[in-house]
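Retro notes - structure team

What went well: the batch runner handled both jobs without manual restarts.
What didn't: labels got mixed up in the shared folder, which is why I'm recording both outputs here explicitly, each with its sequence directly above its tokens.

Job 1
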Amino acid sequence: MIAIYKAIDPDSKVDSVNRLFSPHDGTYGSFFTQKLYIRNSDESKVYTNIRLQIVLNNGDIYNVSENNNVYQLFPGDIEPTAAEWQIIPHCNIINLENIYNNSSYVPFFLRVYSPGGQNTSSRLSDAVIRIEALEDTP
């Protein structure tokens, strides 16, 4: 099974207990960027055509004009510059490399912008990172 991890550590899997948290300035608004990883924890499976996208908890496409937070994803091991982030569409879809074994951690970045004047406790409660991939046996 593939899942998201906060670090190159099998114990850092993101789940209902070890959730993603995005601290923000509730008065002025702020950006928060975190490097995350996709990993396959099942030796009997390989995953190809991996795609990630930010969606609402109910699975609907996240519409920035209807929601306050802005989410962006970026594949790779090197964090984008501020100029690079500016040209990445909000709630974009990214493609990641195939995962053939359970020791590979494929890096990507999540960036969240939360405008000021919001309740900071609800910042990441309305969206999830959807993982789509083809599953096969080696």
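Job 2
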Amino acid sequence: MRTSNNIMKIVLQVYPKISNKEPNESSYIYESKQIKARLPGEAVYKQLSENDKSELILILPKSLIEERENASKISNQLIIVQSIGRYGGKEYKGDYRQMIATVFSELVKKSLQVEKEGESIDEIVVDISRGQNIYVTMLIEAVRNFVVFYKMKNWGRNREMSEFKWYISFSEPVEGQVEGDIRISKVDFSQTVFFDLPIKKLTNDNGYKNELINKLLLKFFKDVVNYNQLKKIVYLTVFLFNSIKNAIVLPLFYVDFPTSREVEDLIEKFASRFIELNERENYNKIEKFDAKLYIQFIQSLGLFVGLMKNIEESGIKLSPEDEGFVEVEKLENFKEILDKSVTNIAARFFEREINYLKSINIEEGKTVKLSDIRKSERLEQNKTSFGEFQKGSDQKRNFFAHAGFEESIVEIQKKSGKLYVRYTQQKIEELKENKGDIYKWILDSK
């Protein structure tokens, strides 16, 4: 259970141009309280700090870098971003999406570090009272993308996400130095995040051999991952998502997945590397860097973490028992995860197949192919002969229609009164090597 001791609130605001001087202090009214502050965002931060741990982060465009000292007097947490336009006789050719990616990366890194300290972010306020429109809209978009990542990384954790909120705050318009109080209002900007994988929209070739991922990301992040590592994590992310989306869980027990903690560490390395890259380029445009791809890639890794945490916290160990068998009741433990993530139809397919497997009665210690069991059932029911059934069957279609329990490749065993299932040894070995029909069907599923 979260308490006020382990939650954090974050306030963000673009630092405005004030001609090389520190902003004057004004009197603000926020949440029915009078607060003295130099910026509206600082007033919001002060009010939140009365009850909870809070931080104020100021966004400083490169064109205002000379204001850094004054901005630091208000908050020691500054995010410097590229600038666009002409200021003070200089032309700035920043990239809007890269500006978004900078703030996004800082928030991703911040959230991961906060969680390592046993805390979590439960509220974000973006104050839009000051700053050029381009930087304000950039900040809103960056937070929107971060919220998608944050909710995906906490997928299915309804308690935490029901408490998470983000708001837009703004002070009433005033001209010049004002006598009296300035009111600050806020609007709930909370958004719904759907169960989808952002990176899928950018993949092609049915095998997710995306050149943008293989080349562009690799070019800038070769200090974080090599080609094979990058390709593997992309494929495994798609494989995990598609398996859950289609309510097909048995294959997950034969694929070697990293832990949620390992992927969180990888995400932090990517975010840190981009921040370093931005600083190295002196907050100028990074040529040929696809910021949209980068953000969607990090969001997708966030969903991998969210799904894997659900599996880990459910006590499910993704490893088979002797001879590759998995207990049917162990598979049934996925029901709660699937109910949070997939359509009712997919969940019903899974539940139907599990109930059918549990109803099978075979001899103790005997391994039987599922197709032989179904053959006997069909003949007993005077249905079409098994040969005729097989002749017209579509293995791939049957695989998805039966939640992965395609009868010609599934074997069942009874041991100590419990039922176990597995794929045939050939299919198990193929999955372990990340190849074969099952692996490709799941990767390529829509």
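One thing worth noting from job 2: The chain is about 45% helix and 20% strand.
We'll revisit the folder naming next retro.
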